[in-house]
């Protein structure tokens, strides 16, 4: 099934409910808006394989825009609404977007990159206009709400983490299959979570992330209603479950922690009995947190390990997890191979780099070196996300580390090289490393360890100056929350930083 078919069957059924305002978008309205935009995109010359990018908050039109690109056979890139102009311009240019869509809430950043993204031929602004942008609403209103003649399946091209300081576009193959052709995620969701037209799916996270975006569209294919939170709030999330009788939901561990910190009487005040599936991923969940969540919500927690790259899908329901605390499950897509640094396979219980065989192919857009580094060194066609872990004798996977030293804070991947690159060229910095340190709420917090050029400068004033320097150029969540000063950083005579030694000091 796909959006057009669902709209024909249940036109007045809610497709999207905005949890904060209570606004309802029916399947007819969602279908018609996405059709109008698809018609506009074709009129502007976009054909299957071309590219659309959009940077939005959790806007009422977010999913209509995604559906328009999906049914037009396009690549589409949803971009974080928290990025600074340098980062935004890079992604728009790198993905090759010919159309860029944003909203007046993000006007300042969107307008700032207009003259730095010459490949964009059409810029649309929701909720008003801005210099260099046309009104989204006015432009699509000129086109019919009927499907384009050559509908076919598109695919998202989202940006994943990397160790070189720049996010990497994960470019899957574009099938251009007939609209409604079931993909791997549709089949997995159908098998594991059994949604139907009576299901209500709650999405409390930003929709520009891979899982919320993909799952919202997938649940629509079953005729399910999607409830979108404009922003996450722990009590509002509980209220939304009760108010909309949510059956399915998706979380990151930080959300669990914040809900568990609510007063007992607040947590007990909400009827959560409708909830049958609470899916979580994006970061390891502390064992104690998950035990408390299962005790509170019942055995409805379902965990998976996967990546934007789509090369694997490892899954554990509550009974499996309770029998193997700390596991992220067993593979449903991709066969796990744990290897040493030379690529030799390791036995159960031994920790090594995780490779997967049999999953879909992927490449990192315009980055052959990164693509090559994701393949196993012995040429067997296995791929890795750069994670380290082990499997037990029963085949359950446990994650133990990140090869790339990527920081996962509140379920969001942060590339430390970006902040390191900024600080390294600051005149008051002689040497720097950015690492993730333990944080009870966020999982990890970003910390910079700095060797100042002048030792006497070390202190709160320089700390504030360097953090502010980062915030002028990067999204704030990527910037250090604190800075420690050292006389020198541990380096090999060749110049290689022993970041592991540095990080171990904070994780002991």
UniProtKB/TrEMBL annotation:
One of its GO terms (molecular function) is CoA-ligase activity. This is Long-chain acyl-CoA synthetase. PROSITE patterns: AMP_BINDING (PS00455). Residues 7-358 form the AMP-dependent synthetase/ligase domain. It holds the Pfam family AMP-binding. Transmembrane segments: none annotated. InterPro entries: AMP-bd_C (IPR025110), AMP-bd_C_sf (IPR045851), AMP-binding_CS (IPR020845), AMP-dep_synth/lig_dom (IPR000873), ANL_N_sf (IPR042099). Residues 418-496 form the AMP-binding enzyme C-terminal domain.
């Amino acid at each position: 099934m796909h959006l057009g078919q669902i709209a024909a069957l249940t036109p007045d059924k809610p497709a999207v409910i905005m949890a904060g305002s209570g606004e309802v978008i029916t399947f007819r309205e969602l279908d018609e808006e996405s059709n109008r935009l698809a018609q506009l995109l074709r009129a502007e010359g976009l054909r299957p394989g071309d590219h659309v990018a959009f940077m939005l908050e959790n806007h009422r039109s977010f999913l209509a825009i995604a559906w328009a690109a999906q049914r037009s056979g396009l690549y589409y890139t949803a971009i974080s609404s928290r990025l600074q102009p340098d980062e935004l311009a890079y992604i728009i240019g790198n993905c090759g977007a010919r159309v860029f869509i944003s909203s007046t809430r993000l006007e300042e950043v969107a307008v700032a990159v207009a003259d730095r993204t010459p490949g964009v031929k059409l810029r649309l602004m929701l909720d008003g206009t801005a210099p260099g942008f046309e009104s989204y609403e006015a432009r699509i209103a000129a086109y019919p709400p009927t499907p384009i003649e050559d509908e076919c399946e598109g695919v998202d091209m989202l940006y994943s983490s990397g160790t070189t300081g720049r996010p990497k576009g994960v470019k899957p193959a574009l099938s251009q299959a007939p609209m409604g052709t079931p993909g791997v995620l549709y089949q997995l969701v159908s098998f594991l979570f059994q949604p139907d037209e009576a299901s209500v799916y709650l999405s409390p996270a930003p929709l520009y992330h891979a899982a919320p975006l993909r799952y919202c569209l997938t649940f629509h294919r079953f005729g399910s209603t999607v409830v979108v939170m404009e922003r996450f709030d722990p009590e509002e999330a509980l209220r939304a479950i009760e108010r909309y009788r949510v059956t399915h939901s998706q979380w990151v561990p930080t959300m669990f922690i914040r809900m568990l910190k609510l007063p007992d009487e607040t947590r007990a005040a909400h009827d959560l009995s409708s909830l049958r599936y609470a899916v979580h991923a994006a970061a390891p969940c502390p064992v104690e947190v998950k035990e408390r969540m299962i005790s509170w919500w019942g055995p409805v927690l379902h965990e998976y390990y996967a990546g934007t790259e789509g090369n694997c899908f490892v899954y554990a329901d509550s009974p499996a997890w309770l029998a193997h605390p700390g596991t992220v499950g067993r593979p449903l897509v991709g066969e796990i191979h744990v290897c040493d640094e030379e690529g030799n396979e390791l036995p159960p219980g031994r920790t090594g780099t995780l490779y997967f065989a049999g999953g879909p192919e992927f490449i990192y857009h315009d980055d052959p070196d990164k693509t090559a580094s994701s393949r196993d060194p012995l040429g067997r066609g296995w791929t890795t996300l750069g994670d380290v872990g082990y499997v037990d004798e029963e085949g359950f996977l446990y994650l133990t580390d990140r090869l790339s030293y990527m920081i996962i804070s509140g379920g969001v991947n942060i590339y430390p090289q970006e902040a390191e690159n900024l600080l390294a060229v600051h005149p008051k910095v002689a040497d720097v490393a950015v690492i993730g340190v333990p944080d009870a709420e966020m999982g990890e917090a970003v910390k910079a360890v700095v060797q100042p050029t002048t030792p006497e400068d070390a202190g709160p004033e320089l700390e504030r100056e360097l953090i502010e320097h980062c915030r002028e150029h990067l999204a704030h969540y990527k910037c250090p929350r604190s800075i420690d000063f050292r006389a020198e950083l541990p380096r090999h005579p060749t110049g290689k930083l022993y970041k592991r030694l540095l990080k171990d000091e904070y994780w002991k």
